[in-house]
Specification:
Blueprint lengths: L1 H7 L9 E6 L5 E3 L3 E11 L5 E12 L5 E6 L5 E5 L9 E9 L9 E9 L6 E12 L1
Antiparallel strand pairs: 1-9, 2-9, 3-8, 4-7, 4-9, 5-6, 5-8
Length: 138
């Protein structure tokens, strides 16, 4: 009962919810074949906000996207795996696909965000061609 009463009277002003996008621009970064090192690329966000959710929009040329793993690291060094390596997802490329994470809830978006893509199987290479980060926060 006490928890319900507290929740009924809970009032917090989060401010106005906004969204902002930062774009990597056109890239041609090789994703090494069958390598845990993978390829990384960063986007620096200058005007930070308190995060509710993060989305990335991703484009990768690759002959079998099921081999790929995608990880995003925040300026606070929180890591979120957005796509598991060797997932078995079929297809020969990722074009403007949206991946979402709530792992960064409450953090500031200001600073360097790093995207890492790894290829977990032999016989095919890929290229990171573009990514964007969309911040939903206040």
């Amino acid at each position: 009962d006490a928890a319900v009463a507290m929740a009924q009277n809970y009032n917090v002003n989060l401010g106005t919810m906004t969204e902002s996008t930062s774009d990597s621009g056109t890239l041609a970064l090789a994703v090494p074949d069958n390598s845990a090192t993978g390829v990384s690329h960063g986007i620096n966000i200058v005007n930070g906000k308190i995060i509710d959710a993060i989305q990335i929009e991703l484009s990768v040329d690759h002959s079998f996207i099921g081999d790929l793993g995608v990880e995003l690291t925040s300026p606070s060094m929180t890591k979120s795996i957005l796509m598991n390596i060797n997932s078995g997802i079929s297809g020969n490329g990722i074009t403007n696909k949206i991946l979402l994470s709530n792992a960064f809830f409450g953090e500031s978006s200001a600073g360097l965000w790093t995207l890492k893509i790894v290829d977990g199987a032999a016989a095919d290479e890929g290229t990171l061609t573009n990514w964007k980060i969309l911040v939903y926060g206040h």
